[in-house]
Please model this.
Amino acid sequence: MPYLKETPMSRIGRYLPQGIQEKGKEIRTFMPRFGNINERRNQLHEVIRLSGMNLIINDTDHPLIIKVASIQQARMQIYFIDNEDFFHRKFTIRDKANKFYKDNDERAVFFSRGVLETVKKLGWAPDIVHCHGWISALVPLYVKRAYKDNPLFSESKVVYSVYDDEFSEVFQDGFDKKIKLPGITAKDLKYYKSSNYVTLTKAAIEYADAIIIGSEKINPEINDYIQSLKKPVLEFQPEDNYIEAYNEFYDSLLEK
Model:
């Protein structure tokens, strides 16, 4: 919010960064520039110094465009990851007929890599990288493998929030090859041979340092998997208290 319609997840995207910033932490917020976001109304504008890079996915160059907008009352700037091929559509994840976009796999790759490359350009070292939902599910893998030797990310803790944003479709064959970057091994790629929502989320959890249950109800198989691991987990928090709980969870990770 206010760029996408109001949902429990979009409310967290709006109010969590503001709440954490008000606790004295410095934040950066990134999201895809979905085509249903009105650029004029929301006053998005391109940041030339951050744009202009090409990301190669499946042997194809995709220009990375960075736009920003401000939520004035929160004193917060939002960075938008944009690309004409991936995000200039009138819908987010599904088309007008509710059909899952065939290239959602590549859109997730582009978004995840685009965020990390932009953070590199900013020269800003995050203590915590907090990923929300499956569109960001590759960020834990990239931080822990492809970017682990970059001094900006070498000490970063990754938190992955699991929501009820499940889809039933399967990604196209060759998803593992689209993900590949130096530092990512064949062993890492085994998680992505045949990717659906469950395998993608399990892999994100595997590479994350800590997990947050972001929705009251999540996929039971994923919930069982989370509980089987010896990782810090923050259970679902009601809306009237989650900022305090998330902030304490961040602090406990930083102390470790």
In short: Strands lie at 29-32, 45-46, 53-57, 60-71, 76-82, 128-132, 157-162, 210-213, 233-234. The CA atoms of residues 134 and 201 lie 7 Å apart. The chain has one domain: 8-255.
